[in-house]
Write a structure and sequence with these properties.
Elements lengths: L10 E8 L10 E2 L5 E2 L7 E2 L19 E5 L10 H7 L5 E4 L8 E8 L4 E5 L2 H4 L8 E6 L12 E2 L4 H6 L3 E2 L5 E5 L1 E3 L18 E2 L5 H6 L10 E8 L5 E14 L10 E8 L4 E5 L5 H5 L10
Parallel strand pairs: 12-18, 13-15
Antiparallel strand pairs: 1-5, 1-9, 2-3, 4-5, 5-8, 6-7, 6-9, 7-8, 10-17, 11-12, 14-17, 15-16, 16-17
Amino acid sequence: MLKTNENKIVEVLVQWQPMPASKRQSISYTGHDGKPFNLPGVGGITLNLEIGDSAFGYQGDHLEPGVSCSGNPGKQTEFPNPTLQYFSCSGNKAVILSGKAKGKIGRVIGHHGGAENLIVDFPRKVKEKMTYDDKIMIHTHGQGLKLIDYPTIKLTSVSPELLSKMKIKELKNGKLGIPVTTIVPAECMGSGLGSIDSYTGDYDIMTSDHASVQKYKIDQLRFGDFVAILDHENSFGPSFKRGAITIGIIIHSDSFFAGHGPGVTTLFSCAHSEIEPIVERSANIGSLFKIGKFGKKGN
């Protein structure tokens, strides 16, 4: 069992509300293929997308599964939204405080940079009862979490509950084996590079090069999948570093924009290959918490 400082990290209740679906003011946009498009995008209570669904193939761009939440709708970059994003970690419990869905429980999946949304999974039957006036309390717990025996591995936005469920292995070579569905090379990473913060937001796997998408099976990614990014170090913002490894979670869909694609919220990072990715198809937050498609009978 991994030793952590869980008994030393703070638990804070933070309050969110569903973020209305948003659209930029432009009539249409131009994709990486030079073709114009005009499709739904970020935000909203999205009924028919959930954890375990493919991150590809929709008539939409940067789509967020589940409930997109904000602490300050309409002023996403202003207080308290950045603070609430920082405190909220993947795997944290979310409780609806009001309305017809009062008392129902969901799980934080991750946060989306640019849109500055928090993405929370709830079952469709719960989402159908929600309104944009509802209040959602996140039981945040995770920031400051450390691995006692692996001090060079940085944790960002990992809840202790998620960590305990991830089936991480201590390998004989001194590394940590972390299950992922997909290994992504550094050259496929795009929008979000250069950010100075790995504790909020995400960055994108570029999908404009179809040969790379097929070669690395990027088009098989699902919402909630854990992925490994090679030669990327995220301790102090995403950046290229030979030998580094980053582990993240898929939080939004593919995109038509140049430099964009499925979004990854950072969970673990190391500078010198202290992590060894282990490819497993079941490496998805849904399989750990039995949510989304994984919470249904027969899955």
